[in-house]
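User: structure tokens for this one?
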Amino acid sequence: MDAIPSLDARALTNRQAPWDDFDPAAYLEHNYRTLREDDRQILAAVRDHFAGHFEGHPAPEGLQGLDVGAGTNLYPALAMLPWCAGITLFERSAGNAAWLRGAVREYGENWDAFWEVLREQPAYRRLADPRALLRETATVVQGDLFADLPERIADLGTMFFVAESLSSAYQEYQDAIGRFARALRPGAPFAVAFMENSDGYEVGEHTFPACKIERTDVLSGLREYAADTLAVSHIDVPGSQPLRDGYTGMLLALGRLRA
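Assistant:
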């Protein structure tokens, strides 16, 4: 069989991208083998956002968390652990889903540095064994965000580097935000992270698409779903640690779903 020619990331829709060829080991090594300063800032902000929300809105038992497009990033799920009886890790790529199942059973030591950032907040220090709790709590579900994600299933949610990194089409970026928002229940706190001005990225031998977005695009995408507490912050590219060519930082949106 002839090899499939490489596709230009700038011309890819979500359905055209080679998601089942996504290399989780390569992505993990490049992005999460050590704790980067930009991820540390994001994690600290998400930690404080969730803890602050539940200080003002005491959590009943049995809350359900959701991380959409989890990939090989465990820190959104770890950030939800103190309040969740169940966490769904929703992922399209077969390779990423397999990686997640292994990580849920016993995640690697590299994630301990991420947990130490979370433990600066008392809600996390109360959890004696986050590995065991993640094993008991998390379920990996493989599916297509646009076709398989149910509505109103989660009491808190995260979606990190997904909406702008699944297609070059702006409409699909907007649709991904809408799908995520409709999977949350009214009042649910959420954290959504984005690559700013990314135009595509390499993982292993394959190119994947991205849609160039800025802070105004994040605000306009989330405004119709979020309560008036929505905040969007910019995280600079660490001078010595750019993740890829052609992006200008990260954007983090913190808020809660409109009741």
